[in-house]
């Protein structure tokens, strides 16, 4: 029987509430700032209650109708660029990793393990080591300021390949034999057996890779120079220019809140699948 200790329960809940407050307060402050005018934000002390400029600020930020000293690109366009990039990167990583892990586990070809470890060893290389050669290739191919340039160099994932390989190794050989007896070819076995079995892992990786793609900063900073191709993370930085008093901080904060919504929705909507994919005991 679990002992009930009211004092310990109160103490643990108090710690949790303090932790939530520490994490949530900056987000709340950002939301409050996005509902005031720029003049009210720079006053000391800054207001701690929401203002009456909510619709005006969010509409101005989303449409880009109010220009400041920095970039005035519409946030709606920037969020679309980020959404396309995040979806292509996450789905591309999953598709390539599934196929590469399938080939490594179920096909016998020369230097099979060499290629696997060559892929895996790319984890040892920091992004900065290969970013300039990658930029050179993308530039020579004319893919700057394009969706292809933003996404194609980022759609390979050694981590996802390793995770899918480890999962495929746990699939019973009887399933392979049964599929072969039923006349299923390799791709039929892949599509009808392995992919459904990998659904929870795919969901978990999709959440992780979507957030990874949405929050990309360094690579888009190099390959985008046109406002129409700024992802929202770059857009926030481009909106800030000059001294503090000259900034439209209300629009910057509104943009930051809008940038948080899609990844937060993905995590909330796929939370069950995400947790199951990480802790599923059958794997």
Please, what is the CATH homologous superfamily of the domain at 75-240 and 254-279? Answer: MetI-like
Provide a count of the helices: 15
Total number of strands: 0
What is the CATH architecture descriptor of the domain at 75-240 and 254-279? Answer: Orthogonal Bundle
For the CA atoms, what is the radius of gyration?
24 Å
Report the sheet with the most strands, covering strand number, pairing sense and barrel closure. none
Average per-residue pLDDT, rounded, comes to 84
Give, in order, the helices and strands. HHHHHHHHHHHHHHH
List unreliable stretches of 5+ residues.
none
Q: What is the helix fraction of residues, given as a range?
A: 55-70%
Report the top-level CATH class of the domain at 75-240 and 254-279.
Mainly Alpha
End-to-end C-alpha gap: 31 Å
């Amino acid at each position: 029987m679990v002992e009930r200790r009211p004092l310990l329960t109160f103490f643990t809940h108090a710690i949790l509430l303090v932790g939530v407050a520490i994490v949530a307060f900056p987000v709340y402050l950002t939301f409050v700032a996005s509902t005031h005018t720029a003049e009210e934000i720079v006053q000391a002390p800054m207001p701690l209650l929401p203002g009456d400029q909510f619709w005006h600020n969010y509409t101005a930020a989303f449409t880009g109708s109010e220009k400041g000293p920095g970039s005035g690109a519409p946030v709606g366009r920037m969020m679309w660029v980020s959404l396309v990039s995040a979806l292509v990167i996450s789905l591309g990583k999953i598709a390539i990793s599934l196929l590469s892990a399938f080939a490594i586990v179920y096909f016998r070809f020369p230097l099979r393990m060499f290629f696997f470890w060559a892929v895996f060893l790319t984890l040892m290389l920091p992004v900065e080591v290969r970013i300039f050669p990658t930029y050179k290739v993308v530039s020579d191919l004319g893919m700057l300021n394009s969706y292809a340039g933003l996404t194609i160099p980022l759609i390979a994932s050694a981590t996802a390949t390793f995770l899918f390989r480890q999962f495929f190794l746990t699939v019973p050989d009887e399933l392979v034999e049964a599929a072969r007896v039923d006349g299923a070819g390799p791709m039929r076995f892949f599509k009808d057996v392995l992919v459904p079995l990998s659904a929870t892992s795919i969901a978990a990786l999709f959440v992780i890779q979507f957030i990874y793609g949405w929050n990309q900063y360094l690579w888009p900073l190099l390959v985008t120079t046109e406002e129409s191709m700024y992802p929202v993370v770059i857009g926030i930085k481009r909106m800030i220019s000059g001294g503090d008093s000259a900034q439209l901080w209300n629009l910057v904060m509104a943009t930051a809140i809008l940038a948080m919504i899609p990844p937060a929705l993905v995590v909330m909507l796929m939370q069950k699948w995400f947790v199951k994919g990480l802790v599923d005991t059958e794997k």
